[in-house]
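From the methods appendix. Each design record in this collection lists the tokenized structure first, followed by the designed amino acid sequence. Records were kept in a plain field format so they could be parsed without special tools. The example shown here is representative of the layout used throughout.

RECORD:
FOLD TOKENS (425 positions):
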């Protein structure tokens, strides 16, 4: 291992800033999935110039994929001079909506002091840029390395990752015989290693009623009132039960170490027409829909999580007059947790110790990210999230990433490459 590697990374500061700014200035908003081809083509040009063989892969037929908004991904691979492991850095290319409250242009990538401001700086184009700089500096320092380095830019992590990592995992790009170590540079603070995440079950509950004139509601059956009974059951029984369940996973923030339920949306009655300025019709609503987001722990079985809600709904159906419902599963994500003794964990932990002079903190994410697909579809367990950026800034107005944080994280990633791809080191 060489101290000159860190000097190379420090010397790449201006390049790192410019690369991050270029990526942020491509507003790859998801939804709808804009400019995916543009950013993948940019990454292809950049990495091909550094000797990587690049592929652009469209997830044709994936959720959200269309001729207007195709789901493009890029994978770049650079083989070493002799056999060895493959280390893969995976970053998502999409960013969430801008929202209100910005004091900076969200896509100008303004550099002010040590910070670059803009949507996606923290989550996670700063991490993508840091991984590229780490790989390029490592290759320049050690051109005779063993194994292979891969860097991918993938679609749709913010909306489930099915047009990105999930698609590539189904194609075998994350199989353990092809890739041995995966680092996802999500913004989880530069001295922490994220081992995994909680599970999630999304579902839509519909309560049913009978339409009637609003002046004579007794002639109908109000689906919204039935949904109120569902809410009461949740408040009286489900929410108190969830607060009693804790996990051994090191989820941060600590309040997320419990099971949680979020009422994502409720809509009763007829759909509201866009641009309609007239008065509503006087109807008893015959339908009310609620979308729930249930986050569950590694200690909980999915079947029990879903069954608990179904049991409450069935109890209402048996005891509340005229109550009827349907439920539609929207998405299921099982918890994922990498062992603290896994090779990629111990390697990155040693690199953090080397760069910062202290042991890393080990955490798990309250929400999910693309590790779920690498684990469940790719069957690759040796995967973590590690990257620059402050977790609490993700999706916020005036999102930013620190240049020094990106440089430090790049050093951790490059030092990890030395350990994994220079066996004599």
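DESIGN:
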């Amino acid at each position: 291992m060489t101290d000159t590697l860190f000097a190379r990374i420090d010397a790449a500061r201006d390049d790192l800033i410019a690369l991050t700014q270029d990526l942020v200035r491509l507003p790859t908003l998801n939804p709808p999935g804009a400019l995916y081809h543009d950013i993948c083509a940019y990454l292809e040009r950049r990495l091909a110039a550094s000797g990587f063989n690049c592929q652009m892969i469209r997830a044709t037929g994936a959720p959200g994929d269309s001729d207007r908004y195709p789901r493009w991904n890029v994978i770049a691979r650079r083989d070493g001079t002799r056999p060895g492991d493959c280390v893969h850095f995976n970053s998502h290319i999409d960013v969430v909506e801008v929202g209100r409250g910005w004091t900076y242009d969200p896509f100008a990538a303004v550099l002010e002091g040590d910070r670059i401001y803009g949507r996606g700086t923290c989550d996670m184009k700063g991490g993508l840029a840091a991984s590229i700089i780490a790989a390029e500096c490592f290759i320049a320092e050690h051109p005779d390395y063993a194994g292979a380095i891969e860097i991918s830019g993938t679609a749709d992590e913010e909306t489930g990752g099915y047009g990105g990592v999930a698609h590539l995992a189904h194609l075998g790009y994350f199989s353990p015989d092809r890739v041995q170590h995966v680092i996802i540079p999500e913004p989880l603070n530069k001295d922490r290693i994220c081992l995994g995440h909680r599970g999630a079950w999304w579902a839509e509950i519909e309560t049913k009623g009978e339409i009637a004139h609003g002046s004579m509601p007794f002639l109908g059956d109000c689906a919204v009132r039935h949904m109120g009974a569902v809410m009461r059951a949740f408040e009286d029984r489900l929410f108190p039960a969830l607060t009693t369940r804790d996990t051994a996973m090191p989820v941060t923030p600590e309040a997320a170490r419990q099971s949680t339920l979020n009422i994502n949306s409720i809509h009763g009655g007829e759909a509201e027409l866009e641009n309609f300025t007239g008065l509503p019709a006087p109807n008893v609503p015959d339908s009310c829909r609620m979308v729930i987001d249930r986050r569950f722990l590694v200690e909980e079985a999915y079947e029990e999580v879903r069954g608990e809600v179904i049991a409450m709904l069935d109890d209402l159906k048996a005891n509340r007059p005229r109550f009827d419902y349907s439920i539609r599963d929207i998405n299921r994500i099982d918890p994922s947790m990498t062992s603290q003794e896994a090779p990629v964990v111990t390697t990155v932990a040693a690199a953090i110790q080397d760069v910062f002079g202290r042991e890393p903190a080990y955490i798990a994410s309250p929400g999910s990210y693309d590790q779920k697909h690498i684990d469940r579809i790719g069957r690759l367990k040796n995967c973590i999230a590690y990257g620059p950026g402050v977790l609490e800034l993700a999706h916020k107005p005036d999102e930013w990433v620190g240049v020094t944080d990106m440089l430090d994280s790049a050093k951790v990633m490059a030092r990890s490459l030395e350990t994994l791809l220079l066996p004599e080191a």
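APPENDIX NOTE: The longest strand covers residues 82-92.
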